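Subject line: Sequence and fold of a protein, written as structure tokens
Enclosed: The protein record, placed directly beneath this head.
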Amino acid sequence: MKLAFCGFRHPHIHALYTDALAHPALEIVAACEEDAGTRAALQDHAQVTITHDNFTTMLTEVACDAVAIGDYYGRRGELILQALAAGKHVIVDKPVCTSLTELDAIERELRNRNRKLGCMLDMRDRPQMIGLRAMIRSGLIG
């Protein structure tokens, strides 16, 4: 699967980027960061190879199957809608968006375009969460 990234201002997206680099079935084909300061910091530390500074341009220039979105909360809904309009599947950190209006629009686009949206729930498999879940289910807490 060809995966493009947009937005690196929230730390969880970095874990997905690292995991995608290591996964044999995934190919990172582009990475966009529109914020100049964040882009410079990423390049200074060689954490991410930034290919684009404009999301719309990346969507039109790069062939990809899905877009991973990790920008700040208030931008996510807008970016998801752009990716869906371009026919891409999306994976995003939580929260997906910050307004019910955006959520309704995203649901509509997913249905109309037969696309999928995944949400990064990366703490589910951590030993602490598994232990906590077991304690809740046993009635010990909660």
